[in-house]
Structures are given as C-alpha cells and as structure tokens.
Amino acid sequence: MNNNQFDAFFKPYSKNVDNANKHGFWKLSDALITQIINDNIPTNISKNSIILDAGGGTGRWVCNLSSIYKSDFIIYDKSKDMINQAVKNINNSGIVNRVKVIHGDLKNMMELKDESIDYIISIYSPISFIYKKEKAFTELFRILKKGGKIIIMGHGFYNALGSKINNYCAGNEELKKLDNKKIVKWGEHVPELNVFAKETMEDDLKNAHFLINRTYGVPVFAQPGPEDFDKENSKKSRISSALEKNSFFKKVFELEMKYNSKPEIANRGMNIFTVATKI
Ligand SMILES: C[S@@+](CC[C@H](N)C(=O)[O-])C[C@H]1O[C@@H](n2cnc3c(N)ncnc32)[C@H](O)[C@@H]1O
Q1: Between the N and C ends of the chain, which has fewer C-beta atoms within 10 Å?
Q2: How far is the CA of 166 from the centre of ligand 1 (A)?
Q3: Can you list the positions of beta strands (E) in 87-143?
Q4: Which protein residues are within 6 Å of ligand 1, measured from CB?
Q5: Which pLDDT does position 6 carry in this prediction?
Q6: Pairing of strands 144-156, 99-103
Q7: 104 CA to middle of ligand 1, Å?
Q8: Where does 3-158+195-277 sit in CATH, by number?
C-alpha cells in the first residue's frame, strides 16, 4: 500500500469512525477493550505517567480514557486526516493540556526518546496495516520504560479464515494466501492487512524482547453482521439490535470476559489483543 492508497482509505474513515460504536456490536467490542485496559493498566497511575496510543487515530480512546486515568497522553498516527480529527476531538473534550498529538510512522518514532513512555495501547489493529511490522515492534520496545506495559491489537487470523470461508466462500488462491502469508484483503478499497494468531502476535512481541503477560480475543463469541461494517453506520445487524437489550448485553459481556483470555479460546477472537511488559 503506497501513501496515496493509505490516505484514500483513512480520509473517509476519519469522518465516520467516531460514530461507529453507536451500534450494539461495536459498543460491546469497545466495552470489552475498555475493561481489558482497566484490568491491565491500574486506574490509579500517577499524573506524571504517559500513555501512548500507537495508531491512536481520531483520539477517541484517549478522550474516553482521560476520564479514567489522570495521566498525560500521546496520540501517534500516520494519517493526517485521522490526526486532524483527533485535534478537534481533544479540543472538544477540554484535554488539550494533557495530550500531545504526533504525526508520524510507528516504524520510526524519532520524535520519542528511548524509555520515555509508561504504557502503550494500540487498538483496532494499527499493526495490521504495517508491512514491515518488526520495525514497529522494535520501536515500541525502545520508547517504553523498563517495567512499562504494552497492550496491542491485531486482526485475528483464525477468525479471518472462518469469515472468508463462511461469509465470502473465497477462492482457493485467496485462502492459500491468507493461510501462508497471514495477509487478508476484506474489500477492493481496504488495504491488505496482517492477521495474527495468539501465537504469532506473542512471537512478534517476544522477538522484540517483550515478556508476554496474556492474550485476549476480542470478541470471542459475538460475531458482527455485514451491516456492522456499513460505512455510514446507518444499517443495523441482528446482533447489534439484540445487544440493545441491557440484560443480553450484560450476559454476553460477562461470558466474553469469562473466557476471552483462556489460551484455548483467545484464537476465536475477531481481534487478538496481547498484553506484554518490558523487563
Ligand atoms: C483502524 S484505525 C484505528 C484507530 C484507533 N486506534 C481507533 O481504535 O479508533 C488504524 C489506525 O492506524 C494508523 N496507522 C496505520 N499504519 C500506521 C503507521 N505505520 N504509523 C502510525 N499509524 C498508523 C492509521 O492511520 C489509523 O488511524
């Protein structure tokens, strides 16, 4: 994917992503991610800590997390359109003094010093968009302080295989490429994306010298309907409608959290979300 394709994909995306979680499936997914972050980054970290959102996009996670964590934040992202939206969202949330926004590539984070960051989060799979991903893992390790944690998400490999077989009846060549190269293409205008099994995400982190704490699948049981990928967020899937019922939402959330980090279940995840430490 060249820079023009990258910009063409994220320009419209930056306009819609902040409304995505108005539907049940994405609300559930966001609630699970928030819970996993809270379970792994103590909510009482000091005001002087820095949480970096790697591929932080429009800053929606930083805006939400700023009411839970007293720390400062950095949003680091390669898309100008996403960054422009982040600046607006941060202004609207009244957190300008606590957030630095950096336009740059995770493969070369030259603006950031070695061991300068306390925690890194990376949500909805920026690493899936990076073809020389080992460079990004090395950079994320470099900037993290000793004892610091990273929580990083990539698209799930086994879920991609299941979806390509069941929802797309994909051809043999496509399935072979996905299986051998761990690369998926969801649509004509969607860039090719790296997919991860629990084991490959953990290996990538270990190769960059991180110590693995735990891997979650997000979500492991709830499956989106095709309507959940509607660009304008105007269509609603059966699962998203059902999740509007509070008791169903609560039960599904509870079951997801009960099983999502079990080693034999995590690979069901639409996304693979791994927590690791720099020791
Ligand atoms: C699917 S979006 C997720 C955005 C945000 N984390 C969220 O959850 O809303 C992926 C993000 O990764 C960013 N990204 C992709 N490749 C990148 C790279 N090499 N360096 C920095 N950011 C990158 C994109 O610009 C985009 O904002």
Answers
A1: C
A2: 28
A3: 99-103, 117-122
A4: 10, 17, 55-57, 60-61, 77-79, 82, 105-107, 123-126, 129-130
A5: 85
A6: unpaired
A7: 11
A8: 3.40.50.150
Atom of ligand 1 nearest to the CA of 60: 9
Task: Match 């690791």 to its residue by tokens.
Answer: 276
Sign of CA dihedral 8, 14, 16, 21: positive
The alpha carbons of the chain give a radius of gyration, in whole angstroms, of: 18
CB of 225 within 8 A of CB of 239?
yes
What pLDDT does residue 14 have?
83
Q: Ligand 1 centre and the CA of 27: distance in Å?
A: 19
Distance CA 182, CA 154 (A): 11
Domain boundaries, given as residue ranges, for the chain? 3-158+195-277
Ligand 1 atom closest to Cα of residue 56: 6
pLDDT of residue 109: 98
pLDDT in tens, 170-216: 999 999 999 999 999 998 889 999 999 999 999 999 999 999 999 99
